[in-house]
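User: Sequence in, structure out. Go.
Assistant: Echoing your sequence, followed by the structure tokens.
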Amino acid sequence: MQIVILNDAIEVAAYGADIFTAQLNRNANSVLGLATGSTPVALYQALIERNKAGDVSFSDVTSFNLDEYLGLDGSHPQSYRHFMNSQLFDHIDINKAHTYVPPGDAKNPVSACHEYEEKIAEKGGIDIQLLGIGRNGHIGFNEPSSGLTSRTRVKTLTKATIDDNARFFKPDEYQPHLSITMGIGTILDARKVVLLATGENKAEAIQAMIEGPLTAACPASALQMHRDAVIVIDKAAASKLKDIEFYQHIEAENQKLQAYLASL
């Protein structure tokens, strides 16, 4: 893991946007794995601004989203398809026909999960996968106890996740308790993973992911096995790490190494 500790959420979003911009400028037809939730919004806003300024294009991009609520179609205001359209796709030069979100209204959800995996493989796999992290360590909707080699499937949401997401639903509005999510194995297949986290409420999950054991009790700990995982967090989210100065030193040395390699 590469651990990047920054001052605040603004710097985290900008750093994440730099990674995605560099990927797209290096490979215009990249396959992106995208995420929903409050954390990616600032990153998406930064990418929208860069797209409008002509600094990056999405015209040849294909994207796959991590997850979707089971039981909501894409027009529902709480669906993740609606979220992606309103927070990103409606504002950039992407072909929406090349943006994929698990179908929350699938008549046969099990078959839809298999088809999603097949579509990812058909497009050549995901080049760079964006992640957030839940307070209980979930990535996508892979809740604690999820298999570390799991594939796209239907998952039951924990009470903690339902409670965390309740703020997005009106008091009398139906809130799904099931989802379709990429599996942890699917996520680990991405060539690069970028996880963003901000705020003290994510500090315990971050500590468990980075310094805890590899365990299904903290699904995000599976990223310890990934060959190119970048964890971008602010100081609040890093506050429970045992030695923040150590991670900052390692990252500074990594930056020197990258500069040296670039000069060769």
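User: And one key feature?
Assistant: The chain has one domain: 2-263.
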